[in-house]
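Trying the structure run again after the queue cleared.
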Amino acid sequence: MQETSIVDQNAEGGFVFTTLDAAINWIRKTSLWPMPMGLSCCAIEFMAVACSRYDLSRFGSEVTRFSPRQADVMLVAGTVTYKMALAIRRIWDQMPEPKWCIAMGACASTGGMFRSYSVLQGVDKIIPVDVYISGCPPRPEAILESLLALRKKIDRDKPARTFFKTAEPREANCPDPVVAAMNLE
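Done. Tokens:
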């Protein structure tokens, strides 16, 4: 169900009627600031998207941030080794909520052609991925399509629930105790 804004042209001052969810989602989806994790050849294709031919700024994503505290979309582009996986996870943890991830290319999605001891077989093993881009390397059009898919996903979100949620008791946030399967006495 699509929620849209209604503008009353007859009213003085131009009133806009909308829901809180629709307003928050509109703000979020029109200002996605990517944090590129350029690990190999897919990063060159991301650089091409920022050029005038593809014009990433049409989608509000031209502000590429290299600081995790100012970005909300991590774009993992390329082969993820186990050595880099720790750094990617640390940067992901430093990003503020809400945050999203795009796995770009075959290597970031599944490990690609590298079936070795040093390559992680998909970045989704360490962070949650929202959109996968296929290809080796993917075309710039595919990157733009992934941003549109992410915008559709954000549009279906219900963020107002988190604002008006009642506080849970502290015991509800604690993990469940582990019960041993066998008697240890």
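The helical segments are 20-29, 42-49, 82-94, 105-110, 140-155, 160-163, 170-173. Worth checking whether this holds up in the mutant runs.
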